[in-house]
Specification:
six-stranded antiparallel β-sheet, six-stranded mixed β-sheet, 524 residues, Methylamine Dehydrogenase, Chain H, 9% helix, 40% strand
Length: 524
C-alpha cells in the first residue's frame, strides 16, 4: 500500500491538458486547489507518519469543458532546509529530528521551555484557506504560506504570532455570506490564562496591491479559557451558524509538559496527544456578534472529533453535526510502517478501532433552570438528539446517529449555517484510504455510493450550478488514483443530484493522494 499512498510525488510545474471522457459542464469555470503530503523521504532519511510528508499542492482548472492540471511543492522554509541538507532536518508530527550535539543545546532548551512549546515546522500540508483575497496553504501551526492560486508559486510565509498570540490555528475556517473568514486557534503562551481564541478576518482585508497580509486586519471575536491549563483540548475544526460559533472542547488533549520537553525526552509531538475516555466533552456556544459564551454548561460523553459537517439554528435550538470517534486510534493508522501492511493485515489490526460516526447534537438556546430534572429540552420533531436537564443545572447532550463509516465530509457550502439535507464524504471500511465516496440524505437516512475497483477517490468537493435553488443541483469533484499502471489518475465529475458519472479527465502525469482544498470560481 505504501507504493500508492506514501510514494514520493513529483512536480508538474507547467499545466498539462487532461484527456476528457464524457462531458464536463460548460458552466464549470474555475480551479480546484488541493493540498496534501507528497514527499516522504529526502536523501536517505524518511518520515515516520503520512501526515509528515512535505506539502505538494495541485490544481485542476476548468475552462469551456476542458481540464488542465499542474502541481508544485510548497516552497516552505521547511522544504528549503530539507532539500538543501539533502535529508530531513525539521521535525514533524510523527518524526522527531534531534538537535545537533555540536549546536548550543542549552540555549535551545531555555528558549523552548520559556515559550512552553517549540517552534513548529511551516510544512502546511492540510488545506487551502482564504483570508481577504489571498490564499494560503495551511495546517495546524502558527505559520501559513501564501500561494498564487494560478501558478501555485509560494509567495511568502505569514506568522499568526505577528498579529495575535496564537501557537496553533485550525486549517478549517468558515466563510460568511459577505466573504469574511472566521477561524480559531490556541494561545498557549499569552498574557493571563491560556485560552482558545476565535477571530475574524474581514473580506476587504487585502490591500489593492495585495502587498500587506490580510491578517493585519484580524479582529478577535472572543476567547475561552482552557478547562485545564496543562491539558488543552485538541481541535481540528469548529461549527458556525448564522449567529453562533460552536466549539467542541474534547477529552483528546495536548500534554503541555510533554510537548515542551519532547526534544529532550526523545518523543514525537504526536505522542503528546492523550485521550481520556473517562472525561466528558464540553460544547461551547458563542454569540459570534457579541463574543459572549452561553452560560449553560452543555456536555456529552467522551468523543474524539476532527471534522464538523454543518451547524444551524432551528426554532430556538442550535443544531450541529460532526464526525465523532470513541477512541484516538486514527492517527496511529497513518504511521508509514502501518500503511506498509497488506490490506488484510491492516484491516485485522484496526477492525477493533472505532468507526467515524456522523452525529447530530442539539442544544436549546434558552434553558429554563426550573425545567424538571431529567427532562429532554429538545422540542424539534425531526431528530432523536436529546438535551437532558441535570440536577446541577447543566445539560447532558445525547446525539442522533446519522451515518456510520464516513470521513472527509463536505456539503453545498451555500447551505453552511442553514438547515440542510445532504452531505458527502469518503466511506471508511478499515483501509488507509477509502475506495468509495458517498452522498447521504439526512431526511430519508439513505445513501448512494460511487466506486471503481482498484481506484481511490479523494475528498469529494461540491460545486453548485449557476443559479441553483435545489441543494444538490451541482457537481461533485474528486481526484482519483490507482495502483494499477493501466489506470491513469483522473478527475471525477459526478452529477450531485443523480450520482451519475458525467465525465472523467485523465491526467497524463503522476497524481498524489491529497487531504483538503477548495474550489475557486473563475472571475468574470
Amino acid at each position: 500500500m505504501q507504493s500508492i499512498f506514501a510514494k514520493n510525488g513529483c512536480e508538474t510545474p507547467e499545466p498539462v491538458n487532461a484527456q476528457v471522457k464524457g462531458c464536463v459542464p460548460s458552466w464549470l469555470q474555475g480551479t480546484l486547489l488541493r493540498n496534501g503530503p507528497g514527499l516522504f523521504s529526502v536523501g536517505d532519511s524518511e518520515y515516520n507518519h503520512w501526515f509528515d510528508g512535505l506539502s505538494l499542492i495541485h490544481s485542476f482548472t476548468f475552462s469551456n469543458g476542458e481540464v488542465t492540471y499542474r502541481s508544485k511543492f510548497l516552497k516552505s522554509d521547511t522544504y528549503k532546509r530539507n532539500i538543501k541538507a539533502d535529508r530531513i532536518v525539521v521535525s514533524e508530527f510523527g518524526t522527531m529530528i534531534y538537535p545537533d550535539p555540536c549546536k548550543n543545546i542549552f540555549s535551545r532548551a531555555f528558549t523552548h521551555l520559556c515559550n512552553a512549546i517549540p517552534d513548529f515546522t511551516d510544512n502546511n500540508l492540510i488545506n487551502i484557506i482564504r483570508y481577504g483575497r489571498d490564499y494560503y496553504a495551511s495546517s495546524e501551526i502558527n505559520y501559513i504560506n501564501q500561494i498564487d492560486p494560478d501558478t501555485l508559486e509560494t509567495v511568502g510565509r505569514i506568522n499568526y504570532r505577528n498579529h495575535v498570540a496564537l501557537n496553533l490555528a485550525t486549517a478549517h475556517p468558515h466563510y460568511d455570506d459577505e466573504g469574511n473568514t472566521y477561524n480559531m486557534g490556541t494561545a498557549i503562551v499569552s498574557l493571563g490564562r491560556p485560552r482558545y481564541v476565535i477571530f475574524k478576518v474581514p473580506a476587504d482585508a487585502s490591500d489593492e496591491e495585495r502587498t500587506k497580509p490580510a491578517l493585519r486586519k484580524m479582529q478577535q471575536v472572543c476567547s475561552i479559557p482552557f478547562r485545564s491549563t496543562r491539558f488543552p483540548s485538541y481541535f481540528h475544526s469548529f461549527g458556525m451558524t448564522e449567529n453562533y460559533i460552536v466549539f467542541v472542547e474534547q477529552p483528546f488533549k495536548l500534554d503541555m509538559v510533554k510537548l515542551a520537553t519532547a526534544y529532550f525526552r526523545g518523543v514525537t509531538w504526536g505522542s503528546c496527544l492523550k485521550y481520556d475516555k473517562d472525561d466528558i466533552t464540553l460544547f461551547h456556544v458563542i454569540n459570534r456578534k457579541t463574543g459572549k459564551v452561553i452560560a449553560t454548561r452543555f456536555h456529552g460523553d467522551a468523543l474524539v472529533v476532527f471534522h464538523h459537517l454543518n451547524a444551524y439554528e432551528d426554532e430556538g435550538h442550535v443544531v450541529f453535526d460532526l464526525i465523532g470517534y470513541e477512541d484516538s486510534s486514527l492517527y496511529d493508522m497513518f504511521y508509514i510502517q502501518n500503511m506498509k501492511q497488506e490490506t488484510k493485515d491492516f484491516v485485522k489490526a484496526n477492525k477493533s478501532s472505532s468507526l467515524p460516526i456522523c452525529r447530530r447534537f442539539v442544544v436549546p438556546l434558552n434553558v429554563n433552570k426550573d425545567s424538571p430534572k431529567g427532562s429532554n429540552l429538545v422540542t424539534l420533531t425531526d431528530t432523536t438528539a436529546k438535551a437532558v436537564m441535570q440536577d446541577d443545572g447543566s445539560v447532558y447532550c445525547q446525539p442522533d446517529i446519522l451515518f456510520e463509516g464516513l470521513e472527509l465530509p463536505g456539503i453545498n457550502y451555500k447551505f453552511n449555517t442553514r438547515k440542510y439535507r445532504y452531505f458527502y464524504g469518503s466511506r471508511v471500511e478499515w483501509s488507509p484510504q477509502s475506495n468509495k465516496i458517498a452522498k447521504f440524505d439526512i431526511v430519508t437516512r439513505k445513501h448512494v455510493e460511487w466506486r471503481q475497483e482498484n481506484c481511490f477517490p479523494s475528498e469529494p468537493v461540491f460545486v453548485a450550478s449557476p443559479g441553483a435553488v435545489e441543494e444538490d443541483d451541482g457537481v461533485i469533484l474528486s481526484s482519483v488514483i490507482s495502483p494499477d499502471p493501466n489506470i491513469s489518475p483522473f478527475l471525477l465529475v459526478l452529477n450531485a443530484k443523480t450520482w451519475e458519472e458525467m465525465a472523467r479527465a485523465s491526467i497524463p502525469v503522476p497524481v498524489h493522494m491529497d487531504l483538503h482544498g477548495l474550489f475557486i470560481p473563475a472571475t468574470v
